[in-house]
Predict the 3D structure of the following.
Amino acid sequence: MGETVILAKIRAQLTSFSPAERKVAEYILAHGEFVPTMTTKQLAEQANASEASIVRFCKRIGMESFRMVKVALAQEYSQGEATINSTSLIESNDTPHSLFQKVTSLNRMSLEMAPKTISYAEFENAVTALQAAGMISIFGVGGSYTAAVDAQYKLMRLGCHATTSSDYHYMVPLVTMMKPEDVLICVSMTGRTHEIVELARFAKERKVTVLAITRLDNSPLYKLADICLCIPDIELEHRIGSIASRTSQLNIIDALYVALFHSIGAELVDRFDESRARADEHRQEE
């Protein structure tokens, strides 16, 4: 079997680990198939490392806990190789159909791991903050802008005053007009994009609530956010574009949309029916 996504990600980060974390990484690289059945204590003994080092190692690779790493490895070993990066795409003999299977497997993995990276309390805080907000602004650049547009559309359907843009200079005056009870949603996989971090910092200065949708990492955005909805980080590189990360972002936005719909109540149903009826009339006239 080829190298799994998690193992490839660990190998790519190997030189960035501390000596203790590297012991854990090297053991998992050498004996990954045994790790899903091990406890933290057992891995610590086998890798000649401390349990605290295992916890730090997990967070360094974007995983909230060792249990999450075990689940990810077990899923990958059962589903087969799903590594997608520029090198593997160029050098492999994959057919279009096998690449379809890899992309599907990667997206499925991101969805299955999502409940293990998002704090239930943080998600509830996010719903409460969005309900109370008079204005909601969503900022994302690059691949994350797709998710920002989707969030704006869904929030607009719920009757929220929501605005989005990928232009930092457009967003700055918008944040200036926001109040403390309003919410700025920052969508960024890395949490390190300069424009995202600067806008989040400006919003914090204005006392505006910052809700981040980003990976579990000690990034500037993660540190600045009042509420952080973390997504699993299972991509090896972003050179060929965001794949699983966008799926994770859209999944969180869908969940927020459904939770808000549930909280707002039945009056939305009549509005949705009216909107659909008007659209149907327009189609019949064409």
Q: What stands out?
A: The mean pLDDT is 85. Residues 5-113 form a domain with the Arc Repressor Mutant, subunit A fold (CATH 1.10.10.10). The longest strand covers residues 209-215. Residues 51 and 63 are 15 Å apart (CA to CA).
